[in-house]
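User: Could you check the structure of this?
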Amino acid sequence: MKILVTAKRIPDPTQKLKLKDNAIDLGAANWQLNQFDEYAVEAALRLTEDGANQAARLGQVTVATLGPADVATQLRSALAMGADKAIRVDAKDEALDANVVAQTLLKIVQRDQPDLVLLGKLAADNEGNDVGQRLAALLGWPQATFACSIQVTDGGKALVVGREVDAGVELKKVRLPAVVTVDLRIVSPQAVKNGRTAATFSYPEGPRYATLKGIRAAKDKPLEQTTLAQLGVSAAMKTKVLKADMPPARQAGKKVASIPELVEKLHKEAKVI
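Assistant: Sure, the predicted structure tokens are below.
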């Protein structure tokens, strides 16, 4: 199985950011791999390996991103986890929106013909979660979003995806090729079943850490560098930020003497009930 995985970089969410020229100042940002994309990489690796013998690969995992030259650091992190190759499409962070990203992924999919595209359910920096849906629409492929489990079925021709919904977990069967976005529970010990790893096998909780051997191997793995123009993608964005504001400072809490007083303040002051 050939799998394409997105690998967006985001600023460290624990780092205090500032505004500059009506936008978030990313000049001093510490960058890291979007956590949900990291989960997607882990899911892709589990789908393409024998859990008991991870050296026996059953497919190929390619990670792709759009960004400047230094985004290669996050791509190398994914390669160190075990991905086979990487693609970096040169672009500036401020010149990207969901449409440009989806159109770029469309061209990569049409060129490389993966069986499955895996994405994180959202980008943790801006809470955007529509690239996967846009890509599926452009491709005309079936899609499943917010996946907490994936099971390969029908001899590798389809997936049964568990989707987290308000009432519990919805099981959805999609034919391959397909687009799937993953949620955090996709990295639970038995969330991914590829039909070859023993059904009783359990992975450690969470995404794997890169080993020293993996970090060394990542240096020699192919990292393709291309541009929007070379892929035939228009760089014109369809969205524009009109204004950026920092959230208001939180007010100090108030003490109450009784439950009735608490209820009254929640109703009349906070207006939440």
